[in-house]
Write a structure and sequence with these properties.
Layout (H helix, E strand, L loop, with lengths): L13 H5 L21 H5 L2 H9 L3 H6 L5 H9 L1 H11 L6 H11 L4 H7 L7 E12 L14 E12 L4 E7 L3 H9 L1 H6 L4 E8 L3 E9 L5 E11 L8 E11 L9 H5 L4 H8 L13 E4 L6 E5 L22
Antiparallel strand pairs: 1-2, 1-9, 2-3, 3-4, 4-5, 5-6, 6-7, 7-8, 7-9
Helix pairs in contact: 3-6, 6-8
Length: 328
């Protein structure tokens, strides 16, 4: 027989009231997605027009569009045709366009953006700079004198490398900082007229080994060449903003070029060796008779600085603010 007694709802205990879970009330409650605000330039112009404009800005500024808003982020990621143009242009001196397409298809599954992000490249949208210092002895004198001279001076000088897409490069050594020399290095016409700049060519062996050669003509008509071997790397993915100086050799005409061996390339991974070499502890003296002279002076790592940062980069600081520059 059915009972007429109704079951009363169970009253929550004191402990249950104390340990309530208010977040349970949020279950099955979904906030409607807000419609994305499309930038006016994307709303007015079609994607192909925007891609054509962005491709002329260069890869650096095209990648910066991705951090402005969600719409531009998706736009930058989806335009594989723009990244293909950047890759073909960046690796044109190293390989043909057909080989670049083949590498992208086999190694990166046809993703040009990943290929540009992963492979090392010699950058042409700025200048590579190394900051070198040495101690110069001064004159000892009484400190009570009005024109007292310090017993030693910390001298700083710079080495500039600018690479061009056609396989040429220019180099200059100067005590002036980057913000002063940038105007000359950026103007190709001024570079051609200047007598303080040396012109040469560069080749790439593999992915990260760069060989630069500069020809020098002496006053007596003799010909000599200066060879720079550098290792290209980046301190962040896709940057390619560091060049470690492996070896510098000055070779007379018809002399054998002292190409660095495999041990010298592997020694670039030894941080202690690099530190001691930059301080000059492993330098060799030259007696004036050898046809090839290998120097260990000015072996600081080259740092890439884009054109829009040449006036504000930290490498412009003098010895009063920064005595030693750690490139990273």
């Amino acid at each position: 027989m059915a009972s007429d007694v109704r079951l009363r709802p169970r009253q929550p205990t004191a402990s249950a009231q104390m340990f309530t879970r208010p977040w349970l009330a949020l279950f099955d409650r979904r906030k409607p997605a807000r419609e994305l605000e499309i930038p006016e330039i994307l709303a007015v112009l079609d994607d192909n027009t925007v891609a054509e404009i962005a491709s002329r800005l260069g890869p650096r500024w095209f990648a910066r569009l991705a951090v402005t808003c969600v719409s531009f982020r998706d736009f930058v990621r989806s335009r594989e045709d723009v990244w293909r143009g950047f890759c073909v242009e960046a690796f044109a001196h190293r390989e043909s366009a057909k080989d670049t397409h083949e590498i992208c298809r086999k190694a990166y599954r046809g993703c040009w953006r990943t290929m540009f992000w992963d492979r090392l490249r010699v950058r042409t949208d700025g200048v590579y700079v190394s900051r070198n210092t040495y101690i110069k002895p001064g004159v000892k004198c009484d400190l009570t004198m009005r024109n007292a001279v310090a017993s030693c001076h910390l001298v700083v000088w710079y080495r500039f490398f600018r690479f061009l897409g056609n396989g040429e490069f220019v180099c200059k050594t100067s005590p002036k900082k980057l913000s002063v020399e940038a105007k000359l290095l950026r103007d190709q016409g001024a570079l051609a007229r200047s007598n303080d700049v040396f012109h040469g060519g560069y080749t790439i062996d593999g992915d990260d080994r760069v060989h630069c050669e500069v020809l020098r003509y002496g006053a007596n008509g003799s010909l000599s060449a200066t060879h720079f071997w550098t290792r290209l790397r980046g301190n962040k993915p896709g940057a390619s903003n560091r060049m470690d100086m492996v070896k510098i050799a000055m070779v007379d005409e018809d002399a054998k070029v002292p190409v660095p061996d495999e041990d010298e390339w592997l020694a670039m991974d030894d941080e202690e060796h690099i530190y001691r070499r930059n301080l000059g502890f492993t330098s060799h003296k030259f007696d004036g008779t050898a046809p090839a002279r290998v120097t260990n002076r000015g072996m600081g790592t080259l740092v890439f600085v884009p054109w829009d940062e040449v006036g504000t980069h930290e490498i412009n600081k003098g010895v009063e603010e920064m005595d030693f520059y750690c490139t990273g």
